[in-house]
Amino acid sequence: xxxxxxFTKELSLHIRRMILEKVSYNIIQEALEIPSGTWDxxxxxxxxxxxxxxxxxxxxxxxxxxxxxxxxxxxxxxxMDSEDERIQLNANMFTLETLxxxxxxxxxxxxxxxxxxxxxxEQKQKMDGLIDEAFTE
Length: 137
Hints:
This protein has one domain (9-104). The chain contains 7 helices and no strands. It has helices spanning 9-20, 25-31, 36-45, 56-80, 85-98, 101-104, 121-136. The termini are far apart.
């Protein structure tokens, strides 16, 4: 591979694969023959990919996040099968409350479905009047 001077889609695929395999940046640069100054410039300037609109620093961050999320998912699955029932219960509850949050979340509603108001304007006006009366007496 010739020394890259441009951040291309093809190069990004090689970098992504290596980041997912936890290869250090120095070894990636060496293996792909990317001069350190070029890598540093791409990172500092968030150099845009030639065939896309993603910057190099954003791309590196996204790859690291993908690696961490994959590892966390694998760890969570292992905990869901734990011999310790408390750990198993907590892992399952966490999974349901996050991945299945539409059905199992413990959230408190501040708005209605899809961000709509919890009360229709007429109900709200009545409630505001009752609250005002309670505090003015």
